[in-house]
Amino acid sequence: MIIAVDGPAASGKGTIAAALARHFSLPHLDTGLLYRAVGREVRAYVDLPDFEERAVAAARALDADAVEPEFLLGADMGTLASRVAVFPGVRAALFEAQRSFATRPQGAVLDGRDIGTVIAPDADAKLFIVAESGVRAERRALQIESRGIVVDRDAMRADIVSRDERDATAPHGGFRRAEDAHLLDTTSLDIEAAIKAAIAIVEAAIAR
Ligand code: C5P
Question: Helix, strand, coil shares of the chain as percentages rounded to 5?
Answer without folding.
Answer: 55, 10, 30
